[in-house]
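Case study 2.
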Amino acid sequence: MKTRFTRPLSIVLCISILLSTLAFSVSAGAPLMSDSQWAAYWREYVSDGKAVYLAPGGDDTEMRFAWMSQVNVFQPTVTLSKTADMSNSITYIGGYVASTGTGEGYSAHVEATGLEAGMKYYYRCGTPGNMTPVNTFNTVATGDDFSAIYVTDIHIGGDDLYGEFLINGAKRFSDVLEAGVEKDDRVALILSGGDQA
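Prediction:
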């Protein structure tokens, strides 16, 4: 009995996901940056400590931050505040993990804890003398609905951070994600199913 419903349900779910991604890709709209604007953005993005990745922590009160660094001399930090001027901020200290590739540097990891639900937070990441500009993220209010974008097998890769294939693929992928967020401002999470390269 259980098997009889599992296979058709799996097929329906797969078709639904496929159709939603096809519709999503087709309606991605015009690029948000020209190729030259994207190339300038990319150069800044991949420079030391500028590409910061956020991920939910072990529960609703945690947020994890990660970025690449060429050195591990200073402890990586994340400073959080509830105000744009960064007053009454809290600083969290993390650590480094050495990358496995040759010359790839270190991955900085910091976890912020004790966050409140339904709050906008301002943050800066980095090390002394090399901090990011102030950015923001929101925690989801308790009991609130939210949307997520699910991606997989995006085929963005390359051995060279400044290679044309990687830069152009990343631009197209960014345009699709931006279009998704424009369609639904409740997007709180982008979940990757893997196979990024």
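The mean pLDDT is 77.
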